[in-house]
Design goal:
The protein is mainly α. The chain contains eight helices and no strands.
């Protein structure tokens, strides 16, 4: 309880720039939650396990079952594998299979990277807002020393320093959280992209070289 009271007091002492930093934190939190659900929850499946299951069915030419496995999984990778399998069912042409895979990859990639770059920008904005609040606090302190009534100098000086340090601390705290979140989301997105590139190529090779052509 005492910590909460201290934090609330520090926030109020930081002045108007604290609300701007808080707004950056709120926007960043919304992006983090949305990206976490998309990248970690909806795509939590094991890509290798999915590929092995699909590969086994394709080698037995049980394409419909392989499609059902992909549709049931519902990840970005499964959507891409399903597009290649559908193309193979429609036609054994390598060009059509490759085209279907590339089209789906182009559709999925923006969804992987969507809004992640905003976390980096918000991290920088939080730092700059904290710095702006710091400068404002220092200006207030120096003004108090030069122009205020001697009886009020100590109070105004302490108020200005408090404003400066609270803005610095809050801005850096939010910036660190956003930067760490950005790194985590970027790493996960890159891992999913690598997984998609690997297994889409394996699927293309399997469908073109691992099965007899149907003429």
């Amino acid at each position: 309880m005492e910590i909460l009271i201290f934090l609330i007091g520090s926030f109020k002492a930081g002045g108007v720039f604290m609300y701007a930093i808080l707004a950056a934190m709120a926007i960043g939190t919304a992006i983090i939650l949305e990206r976490f659900l998309s990248l970690f929850v909806r795509n939590r499946g094991n890509g290798k396990a999915l590929w092995l299951a699909v590969k086994e069915l394709i080698q037995k030419e049980r394409f419909e079952e392989a499609l059902r496995v992909c549709e049931k999984t519902g990840t970005f990778l499964s959507r891409i594998l399903a597009s290649g399998i559908r193309a193979r069912v429609e036609s054994p042409s390598e060009e059509k299979i490759r085209g279907a895979l590339e089209e789906m990859i182009l559709e999925v990639q923006p969804a992987l990277e969507k809004r992640i770059h905003y976390l980096y920008a918000l991290s920088n904005v939080s730092t700059l807002l904290g710095l702006l609040g710091t400068v404002t606090g220092l200006i207030q302190s120096f003004t108090a020393v030069l122009m205020a009534d001697p009886n009020q100098k100590a109070v105004l000086l302490a108020s200005g320093i408090s404003l400066a340090l609270n803005n610095t601390a809050f801005g850096l705290l939010i910036a660190i959280i956003l930067m760490l979140s950005y790194s985590l989301m970027q790493s996960k997105s890159a891992a999913l992209e690598d997984e998609i590139d690997e297994y889409s190529l394996k699927l293309l090779n399997l469908l073109n070289n691992g099965l007899p052509d149907k003429k």
